[in-house]
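Section 4.2 – Deliverable D4.2 (structural model, holo form)

The reporting period included a commitment to supply a predicted holo structure for the target in complex with NDP. Inputs used:
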Amino acid sequence: MIRVIIAGFRGRMGSTAVNMVLEQTDFELVGLLDPNATDKEAFGAPVFNDKKDMVDVKADVWIDFTQPAVAYENTLFALENGFRPVVGTTGFSDDQIKSLIDLSKKEKRGGLIAPNFALGAVLLMQFSKAAAKYFPDVEIIELHHDQKKDAPSGTAVKTAELMAEVREAHHQGAVDEEETLSGARGADFEGMRIHSVRLPGLVAHQEVIFGSQGEGLTIRHDSYDRISFMTGVALGVRQVMNVTELKYGLEHFLDL
Ligand SMILES: NC(=O)C1=CN([C@@H]2O[C@H](COP(=O)(O)OP(=O)(O)OC[C@H]3O[C@@H](n4cnc5c(N)ncnc54)[C@H](OP(=O)(O)O)[C@@H]3O)[C@@H](O)[C@H]2O)C=CC1
Ligand SMILES: O=C(O)C1=N[C@H](C(=O)O)C[C@H](O)C1
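Output (structure tokens):
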């Protein structure tokens, strides 16, 4: 049995993850965290309001779908207290990811931070990296529900990071272009522009648009339902049991 804690269990993703964990015959839900929960128990597991009260919970994995402001401190807490983090929460800085990987190696503890657990989104990122080698002029449009706290999305940032590995940084668009309305050209990641759309009705979507001489290429992924992330979360929970360091990106556990 893999004993699992879920932080953020009342949220959109956390509640979907509760259902997923309860459905797996090799997972056991052993703890739930939410600062504003009033029940002492839910889904047969104890509920905590403060992570400091969870140090004695016997758990193997800490699933985290909370919010960007607490993602780093929660992951640090998990690693320091013997829980393997499987984190979907976004908003980590490069330095934070690096320091968490260093700590996990020191502790010899497996873990995963995945900006996107949907298998199609992971493929989109890999395909985008392959395309950027030959199509270095590229813009990202990410589209999400209007309650999302961070922009750009973690997926858009990771996509840009992967493309930056094979693409030389350069300015895109006219050298003398001018924004007559501030922000019109979006965020700038080494010259790649990232545009964030927030609308009710959306879940999570991304287009990566490449342009070249006389041709274009568009790669798109859609999560229509949060169930789309659960295959990846379940895979992550099982895989972190077999490794001794924290990985950044679900691709590390896929045969690509
Ligand atoms: N990697 C992936 O595949 C995916 C990642 N995400 C990311 O997951 C995160 C959560 O998204 P979503 O579920 O939509 O957000 P929600 O706002 O629906 O849920 C977040 C939950 O976390 C709770 N929370 C806040 N602070 C803490 C804390 N310190 N400890 C425990 N729980 C806390 C909130 O409680 P309260 O409301 O009471 O404050 C809320 O219930 C976001 O960063 C999002 O970008 C989302 C989808 C997929
Ligand atoms: O907030 C969301 O909903 C999502 N967040 C992640 C991100 O920022 O990339 C993953 C997915 O896009 C859904």
